[in-house]
Design a protein that fits this description.
The structure is a homodimer of 353-residue chains. Chain A is of the alpha/beta class. The first copy, chain A, contains twelve helices and eleven strands. In chain A, helix 7 links the parallel strand 3 and strand 4. The structure holds a DNA duplex (16 and 16 nucleotides).
Chain lengths: 353, 353
DNA sequence: TTGTATGCGTTATCAA
DNA sequence: TTGATAACGCATACAA
């Protein structure tokens, strides 16, 4: 009546006595038995580690298909030291800007058999360090760092342990591949667009000064002005922090100061949205009274009222390229991805003076 | 001169002969040696699996601290069957709507020692099934499904294998916890807000009919109208797909049809943005000529021109609660999280007729 | 080309 | 309360 008391296997009884009632996932071992080969052979076929005879290969492939075998990444991670996962240190998992990059990364990693592991650093270097700890403890095979605050040296040190792709900076070191936007050029484009429309009194709303790209964008603004013989009026420069609210406040300050301007270049779209709202509240129309151009060209910018002219950043492409470069690094190839040059998308928020 | 040819350990030499030049992470084994106890004891202390004497516990704790030991989740996953990770099936990693939920999930899982594994289903049930396969192969301890297309039965089946928290539907089954917005009530609130402002010709832009919440929102609209003695005019209902463009087209169709209306209720904010743009293109002002209310209250809605009145969905809270419920399930507790009721945020896109 | 044996770092079983 | 010891599922060094 009662079951015998002989010791039972630790977990569920795989391939139990009667019938086919398999419980739990199929193992490589089972595939090997089914195909009549050794586990090593199956492993070799799976990883292309060695040449195996065609007939055995076929037998194994068949067994895999019949059994619906799927390798266990956890075991693979333990045994081979590879987890087929790559850590992605982003700044905010819900960032409207990096969102595109996240999608690009996911879209290219998944088909390659790798899984991205996203984690947010919140623009805080100690938080970033913690993220990296978590990721390393999970034995990710590589690291994609989307911009981030940690310094170059720390990154180089990390690169001795695992391959790294970093965006938002130029950094060349062994095991590191970097991908960078040309923020300077982009900002120049935005300013020149306004200039070409006849604007001379162009306000600038800067991004978070702690972000490296922020300075570049301001520099591009200054350079374009100077190149066109327009003196930069420091009263026209307002500091922001890349959030909508800061753009709104910047324009309110500017309006309150009484300094005249006919156009605004915001260092990102979110601040441009805030600026547009500030203008609207004062009864100023875009672009009739004030022209407005943003930076990043986030998804919603095509549908604001009016649609926002903006410097397009190929963020999705950035994600794809970063992931592709990581795949290259992981495969021992030298990545050669490069970002397309920025360009401006002219919509309805800018007009001739 | 040359190094000896005796067989070397498979990977790097841990705890090598001379000095302290440890390579690679510290292992539990090393902690055990250092503390003068067996590995099992260390494991027990780590997991609280059994009571251990205070002195040994202290010795182990010290060793852990001195060595900077950090358990290897991969090995844990293999041995114990727990990976301390939970899979999150979302619809788009860059969704402006679910973004808040992702953040909520991350914010609550990470401090608890769990890592979220995000993967996008793209509103496609076969893609969703693939996602779940990937997640299961990675041996996640639980699954959070943000809405999704897969049917209840499939979910119930899955729940026999691992705990599941699902949003966007009511589903009670063993191992499943569901969290649902009251879309019906929310839609009623939006419509009643418009009604209270004196509007009677209220257009409705529906969401993707394939989404379950879409029907609820339409139903709420209809019920509110009827409850207030306003006949619903089918000509006022336009179909959308939750994207901005579809909102724009819906209003263009409505305008072209010549059917009069003084207000619009869009089933989500993104379509409301499209609608606002369509209105703007025709020279119609919001809210002066047409009142507009959205649904979801996404982050950007506070900064559109004009700021959008919308039914607030506690998405971040949803993420937190889903993750909390998952933690409960994982710990063998019965979750009791419940979502707050929807409420409408009145901003500047609605006005009395 | 293939199989055997061993180890990856941890948890779980069992006996002490 | 504690310690051997055997898994977990796979990859690799080595022998054949």
């Amino acid at each position: 009546m009662s079951t015998s008391n002989k010791p039972v296997p630790r977990r569920s009884a795989r391939g139990s006595s009667a019938g086919d009632e398999r419980t739990g996932p199929v193992t490589l071992q089972q595939v090997a038995e089914r195909a009549g080969v050794s586990p090593s052979t199956v492993s070799r076929i799976l990883n292309g580690t060695a040449v195996v005879s065609d007939d055995k290969k076929k037998a194994v492939d068949d067994a895999i298909k019949e059994l619906g075998f799927v390798p266990n990444p956890v075991a693979r991670g333990l045994a081979g030291g590879r987890t087929l996962s790559v850590g992605v240190v982003t700044q905010a998992i819900d960032s409207p800007f990096y969102g595109g990059a996240h999608r690009g990364i996911e879209d290219t990693l998944l088909p390659a058999g790798y899984s991205p592991l996203f984690i947010s650093g919140h623009w805080d270097d100690t938080a970033e360090a913690r993220c990296i700890e978590v990721l390393r403890s999970r034995r990710v095979d590589g690291l994609i760092v989307l911009t981030g605050r940690m310094d170059d040296e720390a990154l180089k040190g990390l690169a001795r342990q695992l391959p790294i792709v970093v965006t938002g900076r130029d950094l060349s070191a062994p095991g590191v591949y970097s991908l960078n936007f040309d923020d300077l050029h982009g900002a120049r484009l935005a300013t020149e667009h306004l200039l070409s429309l006849g604007h001379k009194r162009i306000a600038f709303i800067g991004g978070d000064p702690l972000h490296p790209d922020s300075g570049k964008r301001e520099q591009g603004y200054r350079e374009a002005l100077q190149a066109h013989g327009v003196a930069v009026d420091e009263a026209l420069l307002q500091e922001g922090n890349y959030q909508e609210e800061s753009g709104l406040q910047a324009i309110e300050r500017l309006l309150a100061s009484g300094v005249p301007f006919t156009a605004i270049f915001a260092a990102n779209d979110q601040m441009a949205f805030g600026a547009a709202l500030a203008l609207h509240r004062r009864g100023l129309r875009v672009p009739h009274d004030v022209s407005l151009v943003g930076f990043d060209d986030v998804a919603t910018s095509s549908f604001t009222v009016p649609p926002l002219s903006s410097v397009h950043q190929p963020v999705y492409e950035l994600g794809r390229l970063a992931a592709t470069a990581m795949l290259d690094l992981l495969a021992g190839r030298q990545p050669e991805a490069a970002l397309p040059a920025p360009h401006i998308v002219v919509r309805e928020s800018t007009a001739a003076i």
